[in-house]
Amino acid sequence: MRYKAVIFDLDGVICHTDKYHYLAWKQVADELGIYFDEEINNRLRGVSRMESFEIILERYEGVMSGEEKLRYTVEKNEVYKKLLKNMSPEDLPAEVKETLDALRERGLKLAIGSSSKNAGFILERLGLGGYFDAVSDGNNITNSKPDPEVFVKAAQFVGEKPEDCLVVEDAKAGLEAAIAGGMECAAVGDAVLSGLATWNLNTFSELREVVE
Predict the structure, then answer these.
(1) Distance CA 93, CA 35 (A)
(2) Active site residue 91
(3) What whole-number distance in Å separates Cα of residue 68 and Cα of residue 62?
(4) DSSP of 73-112, one letter per residue?
(5) Is the pTM higher than 0.85?
(6) What angle do CA 196, 202, 208 make, to 5 degrees?
(7) Is-catalytic flag, 101?
(8) pLDDT tens digits, 32-52
(9) Pair 63, 47: CB distance under 8 Å
């Protein structure tokens, strides 16, 4: 086997919650009278909650205190979590679950490496609570991607060296984080266009060939 562990970003790789993020941020932006659209929302992928809000505030006319910023990001997360309750195991693509099971059968350790503080909740909604060998997420890191911390900790949690881990990502910042952490990476979705990945996947199931 080429690798001993595979570390997956969650949002955009295992599942897609972009629409929920968008709706939650849109509610906050509308409240503040800030223009916000899907294009701006795309800039927030793989970025921490507060950093995302700073991007939204680029179009804000006034000055906002740290306390106010915290209040609005908390509000956004509450809206987001309510929307996430709509998720179910039906939101987990069959191709993803079949591929994960196939990788596990081959003896690979599987982990999540996500900046989200809601990773555990999302996994539960998808029917994947307790499925992964380790979950490294926004609750145990201090630096967001492209800092490698989330992936380095995931590797530590599964007891493998970075060079024996493959990271699967859909965002450029995530690929940069993997590379900075000394790991090879596979790109899905828009991340393929960055040209940074070790492997570019057309479909999630291609991972089965990559790990051979």
Answers:
(1) 33
(2) no
(3) 12
(4) HHHHHHHHHHHHTT--GGGS-HHHHHHHHHHHHTT-EEEE
(5) yes
(6) 95
(7) no
(8) 999 999 999 988 877 889 999
(9) no
